[in-house]
Amino acid sequence: MDGVLKNIEPNRLESGMAQNIWQLCLQHLERELPPEDFNTFIRPLEVANSKNKTRLVAPNPYIRDHISTHYLERIRDIFEHLDQPRETVVIVDGLPAEATERDSNVQATGTSRVKTGLDQRYRFDNFVLGKSNELGYAAASQIAQKPGDAYNPLLLYGGTGLGKTHLLHAIGNMIRAQSPSTKVLYLDSERFVSNMINALRHGDIDNFKKHYRSAGALLIDDIQFFAGKKSSQEEFFHTFNSLIDSKQQIVLTCDRYPKEVDGLEARLRSRFGWGLTVAIEPPDFETRVAILMNKAQEKGVQLKEPVAFLIAKRLRSHVRDLEGALNTLIANARFTGRDITEGFTREVLRDLLTVHDRLITIENIQKTVCEYYKIRMAELLSKRRPRSIARPRQMAMALCKELTQHSLPEIGDAFGGRDHTTVLHACRKIDELCETDGRLREDKVKLLRSLTA
Amino acid sequence: MLFSPQIPLPLTPRRESRFEDFVEGPNKAVVEALKHMPDEPGSHVFLHGGEGSGKTHLLNALCYETRERGGRAFYLALKRLPEDAIASLRGLEKLDLVCVDDLHAIAGIEAWEEALFHCFNRIREANGRLLTSSRKQLSAMNIELPDLASRLAWGLRLPLLPLEDHDKLKVISMQADALGFTLPEDVQHYLLKHHERSMAALIRTVENLYQAALVSKRRITVPLAREVLKAAAGETEAQSADKK
Predict the structure, then answer these.
(1) Which of B94, B143, B158 has the highest number of chain A CBs within 10 A, making it the mutation to test binding with A?
(2) Residue-wise pLDDT tens digits, B79-90
(3) Among A32, A327, A392, B134, which one is least packed by beta carbons within 10 Å?
(4) Residue B107 domain-assigned?
């Protein structure tokens, strides 16, 4: 196991004694504190002895401060009681030295993490292609072959867990494979923000700027988390301009169409649209099956087709859901020693599969659509036909056809006794609009997700 | 009130929760999966089960196991934390194992959800291990941030099933042992028959019984158990009357 605790103090005897005293102190505290508090705040402390001081090391500044205000005096009392000078006990946070060692371990063993932030597990050759993501895949692979040349920036957007991050890493890994000297940087927007805050705090902002502006390819995940963070946006704006000017590749991902991200500066939004913007849609049934079969194979498991069909039919929101179900299934098979049959799958994934079954009824779809468009159920079922009501009604009908087994007449009946041709018309209309109207397509994707997640 | 409110100090310190003290019952595969987590960097498990199903015990048992093997583990009980404690999720990716208990307590709170989402990403990037728990299963938790929900769905989702009666007896007699007394068999059966049989309620009752015996200096018998149950029932009634 990596990150093994080491005694920082060279004098082992002294260090061992500190450990013993700390153990005694722990016993006292354990009697006094509620178990959750003891386990959260006291148990993770590590003890290090240096220069006649007993240093208690907390995992982060929050825990350090909490200990200082709530427990440090008590700990010192106990130390005094154990004939130790009370002032020698101090509380600090973090163990940066070991963190770095851990980094080098990861690199040395050749697993997926390198300084670029790239994860080598995500490559083009293990990305499962389908209708829903073929555009994104094509654009990504083109860019990976000729970074800075084709589309700049490339922006991939779509719901969570559909493979945006996979493509981002795949681009980076391919660029590195073709030209190992290219400086490729992958990070999510939150990391960009926190790195910038750290740089400001340590007076290191010039290096920060230099670092990102000298990237050969900059891959930023989840830019929606830039929202509301003004000075980070400002800095990112300049980084962006500098990279585009020097024809370095930028690839971004976002969980929605970037124009719809509130709290993102207008000039950034418009720049994000300079290159190519591609939507990644939720996978269709065939792609879901293919994903399950591939992932199972990666884990050395031969998944039977009916089992893949069963899972893919029920779980339709995102790929992580599929992977999670498969992981759970494989782990259960492994630890019970049973074969993965359809029956076993139903038993193990009962919670996941039935919930999805239960949620998707006509009534539920109607309710969800009403909540989404903020209209009343009575309006949805009424004969009124202004667009603000008719469109949500058509959407609800189309969703009923897609997600339930009900016939068109049954669906019509449930919508205030409408004819089945009205339902058919609604479904066609929604399909047609999805091709041309990005916002409506977005609505549908979000509704599908909330109904099937 | 029947018994003095003074709480006697336990004579022996509590023993850290360990796997060997966990009554598996129908949850053998779940426990096996958790025991394998130290060997699987980058793994994430989402554990769900009702109050008293043993989630906290298992989270702490895995922390214990990790520390025994020289690793660094961190346990965080969300329901115990004040709202400004979001910063407690920072920097945890340096550790070998992070256990976050009671996710249901922060579901729907935007700032917590976002902080947990970033925490998840950092741990995953560092190839660390994350064990989370909730009283509710994922789909019933009303998590607002889809990015967080999808990540929690990614790893193993394991339910803790309720124990059969004979296993419940095992748990309460082990609990009594840990407190330093023996729970006579007739008292065990009396508790199971005459009391709400949820594990959480049984554990509370054994605790109350122990306190009552210490304070009143009586042996633990069925009549004492009857009094304790009656007193507890009276308190619950009084509480609900107060609420009204």
Answers:
(1) B94
(2) 878 777 888 898
(3) A32
(4) yes
